[in-house]
Amino acid sequence: MRCYSCGNLLSELDFCPTCGADVRLYKKIISASSLLYNEGLEKAKVRDLSGAVNSLKQSLKYNKRNTDARNLLGLVYFEMGESVLALSEWIISKNLDSKKNLADEYINLLSSNQNELDTINQTLKKYNQALQYCYQGSKDLAEIQLKKVISVNKNLINAYQLLALIYIDNRDYPKAKRTLLKALSIDSANTRSRYYLLNVESALKDIAEHSSDKMLKQEALNSISYESGNDTIINPRLPKEKVGVSSIVNIILGLVVGILICWFLILPARIEKEVSGYDDQYKLVSEELAAEKTNSQEREHLIDQYDSKIKELQDEINYLKGSGVLNENDYLMQAANAYLSGTDNSDEIMDNLNNISEDYLKTSKESFRKLYETLNANAGTEAVTKYVEDARKAIRQNDYKTAIDAYTKAYSIHKDDQSLLMSLAHAYRESGDTNKANELYMEIIEKYPDTQEAQDAGDFITD
Amino acid sequence: MINFEEELKKFQPSMEVEYVENAIYEHDLTDMTDIFFEFMKNEKAAQEAAILNASMADVQRPM
Description:
The complex is a heterodimer of chains A (463) and B (63).
Chain A: H1 24-45, H2 49-62, H3 67-79, H4 83-96, H5 102-112, H6 114-136, H7 139-152, H8 157-169, H9 173-186, H10 191-210, H11 214-223, E1 225-228, E2 231-234, H12 245-321, H13 328-340, H14 346-354, H15 358-363, H16 366-396, H17 400-413, H18 418-431, H19 434-447, H20 452-460
Antiparallel strand pairs in A: 1-2
Helix pairs in contact in A: 1-2, 1-3, 2-3, 3-4, 4-5, 6-7, 7-8, 8-9, 8-10, 9-10, 10-11, 13-14, 13-16, 14-16, 16-17, 17-18, 18-19, 19-20
Chain B: H1 4-9, H2 20-26, H3 32-60
């Protein structure tokens, strides 16, 4: 402690050792302030905030320069939700004692977060507005505002108290009690809160004992607290589950509603989804089936083609292997054999060559045709001569059939010889087949028009 | 039983941020120490006045 006159440190004496000023009273004032500060601190520690406020205010009334007391007062105000009051105390503290003051930190904390400060300010405005509503008689609006305030500024004790007052006026004692208990959890020895709570509990007790309304009575009983020695026991408000027929009915109703919702809302959508899935599958399968069918048809067609090819090849194989019947190759071989044997076998050669059809010749290999033509050229003339001699011999013997055969063979070798054709025609005529004879005569006329044979043929044509 | 109107009168509006400045200016910071200093000042003045009066009286007394 320092002397108020010279500022030097004081001793335990009642006067200043430096300037001699009477400091007895001054010391008492300062001590009282300190004492009250300590008292306020103790109360703040046990959350008797309103008691702490009173003590600290008293302390500051003794000594306004008690920085600790002022800072603590600001803290207590802040805890009670009165942030602006707290801020004002800290500002004053800083102004009175600017050196190493905790108030600096507190002020920076508040002012650094402008949004939070604005939010707090809004809650205070709403609280003031709710108070106005109460003065105007609009308790409902006040209730709504106060609920909003409490939800944001959870420590504003005045708001809890005002709300509790509204509930009390509305005779909603359980709600009032809950609100007051919340207020008391912040400020445990608040006189107003305790006073209201006392009244509320008294009212609840009254209802519990005398009310005819069962629900109200039960609610009151649940809310009542009672004293047990030094403890106050408050019955917890446990919501009771209503068991019985109504709950079973509710469960059944819930199940029915759930089933109906599933049936009408969820199931059709699921079914449609499944069906569309099946449709897609069906479509896919149909397409696959159609593709498969087409492939199958193609395969069958191919199989038919292969079958015919196989048959052709088989025929060819059979032909090449030989089935006992002489084929064109055999005839050609026989004709070649007859030619090579050297004897006069021209008719044999020609007989064999005549068995080879012109159609076969056209499609045969070149080597085959060459051999055929060679044999035909070499043996043909001799064969013709022989056939003509045979034919004449046969005519002399009136064997026109043989003559016709011989002339036919000869003509087949020398197709350009009109005399042979003429002789053949004569043979037919002599044999009595005049139709055939006329036919041949006409052929001569057509094929060889400006020849002697044509002229003669015209004479021989009979009707 | 609690009277709503009577209790309502006890509720005071909370201070808003806009009014902090005025509140601080109007805050009465007079404390016991200020009163003490005033008292001491007056006491000192009174003592000085008394000493002066005594010396004046000595001067006026006949020898």
